Amino acid sequence: MMKLFKLFLFFNLIFAIISCTEPKLIYSGKIINEKNLNNLNISNKNNLIESFGQPSFIDPIENKYFYYSQKTKENNFFSKENEYSYIFVFEFDQNDNVVRKKVLNLNKVEKIKINKMKTSNEIIRRGLIEKIFGGVGTQRVPNSN
Question: What is the number of domains present in the chain?
Fold first, then answer.
């Protein structure tokens, strides 16, 4: 009985230590502050690189720059909260002027629904002999004329 009580006390102590940690902020990608969010009036590629730095990804085919930014608040091992997650997309023309700007909020993206359609399996419908011998004798040899 005493061992069980000590084990119970040990687990309660571990739980108390884990749950009393200070929240930790984790940044991924480009750290965006209010000044950068309000300063999206960028006219060309040089201004963009001066304001935001080098992009997270460059699309050379469509001439776009992508900036990724995420902030996560972690209280303990079991509790993570994604405060924000953005992708900033800047598209340029041939003269490196900004043509289009887009901000994607990844926290508000809809979940992908998996399609329930299935491909038919003809092997299951065939009989035992057809399963064993498969396509034996069904192929014709082309004429060598």
Answer: 1
